[in-house]
Amino acid sequence: MLELSLFVILALFIVGGAVATITNRQPLFSAFGFLVSMLAMAGVFGLLENQFLALAQIMVSVGAVVVLNILSIMTVNAKEENLPKELHKYRWILLSAVLVSPVTFLIYKSMSMAYQHFSRLETVSTKVMGERLFSAWVLPFEIVSILLLTAMVGAIVIARKKDVIAKETR
Amino acid sequence: MSQKIKTVKRYGERFQDKLYLPAIYDGVKVTFKHLFDNVTDMNAVDTLEYPEEQPKDISERYRGLHRLTHREDGSEACVACFMCATACPSNCIFIEAEEREDGVDEKRPKSFFIDTLECVFCGYCVEACPCDAIRMDTGIFSLTGNSREDFVMGKEQLLSHKGAFGEENSRART
Amino acid sequence: MSTASVLVAVFSLILGALLALLTIPVLVWLERRIASLIQDRLGPNRTNIFGFRLGGVVQSFADVVKLLLKEEYYPSHIKMGRWLFMLAPVITFSAALLAFMVIPFADTLNIGDEALRIQALPVDFGVLWYLAIGAVGVLGVVYGGWLSHNKYALLGAARAGSMVVSYELPLGLSVLALVVTYNTVDFNAMVQWQSGTFFGFLPAWGILVQPLGGIILIIALFAETNRNPFTVAEGESEIVAGYMTEHTAMKFAMYFMGEYVAMNSASAVIITMLFGGYQLPWVSTEMLLTHFSSFALAVMVVLPVLVGIIIKWMRKNNTVRGSVSTDGGRGFETKVLSSALIIMTLFIEGVFIYLGFFTENILANTLAVALFQIMVFVVKLMLFNIFFIIIRWTVPRFRYDQVQRLGWYYLLPLALLNLLVTAIIVVGVSS
Question: What is the reported pTM?
Fold first, then answer.
């Protein structure tokens, strides 16, 4: 009973945060909605007794949202009048929801069959996760780290390009 | 014309300076010494615990609250010449003159108001007075009152203030 | 859920909440008093309740009353997002408060066959929790500054946000090096690891085992809590009050308190990871329990000496110079406090005599040792808060580009190097 009520509250936050993310004009309010959604999802992970995922989710999402906020304040710095007008916003959202609904229906149908394929989840502690990650799943781990490295290098190149071009044209 | 060139020594190039931690340690030594000395003997801290301890450095030239001086026979020395009111940069002295009957002098002030809320305590009125009638040597530095009217001081009040330094009576009008 | 576990859980929760919240007025008072004593002046010492001045702590309560009764005011130029404007300080305050809740105050009690943790949140992944929740606090700063619709607030918020984000990297890396050394993410196990000796005679404290990592951790924690010399967020002479400019009354109080709670949790983390937590050097919990009578004797000797020093200091210094009354103006307070201290000392002496020499009750011994460890933790916490305060009033503020250069050019490579060397040594020693 307690778990059910907690889950309902967290699910409301997830859905509410997601709706806030897509309907707000200001980028910072969208980021806040995203953050609320991610924190509630971390709570759901905690309900499933997976400590490591919950904390990793909080770390990653909070860090990402903070950097996103600072970036949009310092670099983009869109004023109120420069934001896009977004006419008939809610009609477009409703139309896209209707178009995506077959996929939603399929996912919902598959849920009742999917969990039969999941193994019984034992309590996953950080230690177990660490051992598994470095023994059986080490190849995906390394691929993900290479992906992150390319993302970082790309970000640095994009951020530096203006300086280099400015120097060359002087 | 030859110029004297002074070379300023630059600091911050050695490894200890770049590390910054030895500098912090030196700073903390000074700070901690002050802290320790003051905590072990709090009575020696250089703070005046007002109002139990009054300031000890009120000198003769301190410009405190104004007072009007007396002659030898007890009347006021002021002859209402309006020099102080003219010299005052804040226009806070208000005088009304009247004739003096007893032949000691020609005029006396009927009313003499100083608005001490406007006064900047510059002392120009003391320098301007030819009769040594107004002085600022009472040594009173703290004025209190409950309303703005309490700070407008009249002739009787100004005559009643006692001087802390200098002579009691006027030296120019006896 | 036996009664012992419920009692211990409730007690730890109350202790954690008290330690986090009641230290706020004490820290405000300590900051003002120590700042003034360093600068050769006396701090707040006039507010009192019926003559009890308590060194000026009552001033903090007066501040709290003032902030509570102030008018809640929203500037009229803030049109959008007033709910988030009010929520931002709450985010900062609650994040700082939650981050404190996983610090162990004493060793786990082994009552019967259960192991009961003395932490407000009895979890065993303390380090991860602190890293995760400690990062949430900067969101309140960024949102509060941006929504203020004010150039200076925006500047302060952007600077604070980017500084905190850039110092999370050296913080995480040095914490990681410490986790590799201690081989656990549990704060309690870390403290237990530090109870041995290192190279024979040194206590195995984190600061001696990992000097470089410890220094990087301390510097990064100074930056995370926006504490001098890293106060780029509210450089008081540069950008008015930075991100806090438009927040008045209770919102400002939340930011103000949140800063002190964050300083408190940073001190707690530094003690737990680097300075042996709730333990005295060289002495572990089992040693205290097995040699309980000698421990009781040591406490019975040391406690009256300490109390005597405190009473002598109070008699000499708790006076008003130049006062017209004969006892110096605060004699009543000195007498009451001295008698309270003496009664408390006698009570503790009685308890320890009874426990040390007349009974062999293991449960009572365990509880006494746990209370002693809580006392040691509180004393160490206050010492480290005083260290934070002394550094604030010693070192001048860093410029913003100096802060970023320090974080990215110097601390990040050093932290990586530290992690590499630590990993090599740990693998080499354990194989």
Answer: 0.86
